[in-house]
Design goal:
The protein is an alpha/beta fold and about 270 residues long. It contains 10 helices and 6 strands, in the order H-H-H-H-H-H-E-E-E-H-E-H-H-E-H-E. The protein has 2 domains: about 90 residues, no CATH class; about 130 residues, Nucleotidyltransferase, domain 5. Bound molecules: zinc ion. Zinc ion binds next to loops.
């Protein structure tokens, strides 16, 4: 990729991660990307390019993942223009290119004559079915450190707060494994609250799918434990929800990061 171990734009240590995510030029372009995309990127610290991309694919929906790919490509092109042609493009120009390229892709994929209907994601909390309590879970990873936190927030059908807990882990840098630990924490919280009929909601679809089909993921021991433990409940369902519906657990996980290692309930 480069002849020297130093970045040719800023002089920092060179790597794929530096070039595409961390160099000043890349940061300026990512600063203009949608917040949810950047948030998901910030919890994925996998140093291996391929695994990083696989993780992103599991964390993002198709539209976000397309934007990620196009933006990475645009950053790479802008950088080469500076280094080899001495042509500087502003981050706004690069971002405008990304937007117009994605709009072009959408026009190509939509059937002729059909209007593009942009569906807004709901952002209100969704109540669980009758006689169930709902536990929203989420995970957050501290950037550049192997410290992760999971959070679970339990509420009744009328949205009344019933309890919450967070757990901090050291040595975990696999975002999906951390999301699975968040699901496990939901079951522990339900036990603490003596709730036997629960619905656990996560914004990580891949973990839900792995639980449903008992898939042997790299974090299979956690999946196995969740499945075993879920059988002790009268009702225990798992559902995928978009992050916009999961803000309380998401914010709790993020804020719990500085609290230190261990389990905090309340
Ligand atoms: Zn640099």
């Amino acid at each position: 990729m480069a002849d020297s171990p130093a970045c040719r734009l800023c002089g920092a240590a060179d790597s794929w991660r530096h070039v595409l995510l961390e160099c000043t030029m890349a940061r300026s372009i990512w600063a203009l990307a949608p917040e949810s995309l950047v948030e998901h990127m910030s919890i994925n610290e996998n140093p291996n390019t391929r695994r990083w991309l696989f993780n992103m694919q599991s964390l993002l929906n198709h539209t976000e993942f397309t934007r990620l790919g196009v933006t990475l490509w645009a950053i790479w092109s802008s950088r080469r223009k500076v280094i080899y042609e001495d042509i500087y493009q502003t981050p706004f120009a690069t971002n405008a290119f990304v937007n117009s390229f994605i709009n072009g892709l959408q026009l190509l994929t939509k059937p002729r004559g059909e209007q593009v209907v942009v569906q807004a994601r709901p952002n209100r909390w969704i109540a669980p079915p009758e006689n169930l309590v709902k536990i929203n879970v989420d995970a957050a990873l501290l950037r550049n450190r192997s410290v992760g936190t999971v959070a679970a927030v339990c509420r009744g059908r009328d949205e009344v707060f019933m309890g919450a807990s967070t757990v901090t882990f050291i040595g975990t840098n696999e975002p999906t494994a951390l999301e699975a630990l968040a699901m496990r924490e939901a079951l522990a919280l339900a036990d603490d609250l003596y709730e036997r009929r629960i619905l656990v909601a996560s914004d990580c679809k891949v973990v839900i799918d792995n639980i449903k089909v008992n898939n042997a993921a790299s974090y299979r021991a956690i999946i196995r434990e969740i499945i075993d433990r879920s059988s002790s409940f009268l009702v225990c369902s798992f559902s995928h929800e978009f992050r916009s519906l999961n803000t309380k657990a998401h914010n709790l996980a993020k804020r719990a990061l500085p609290l230190g290692v261990g389990r905090v309930c309340g």
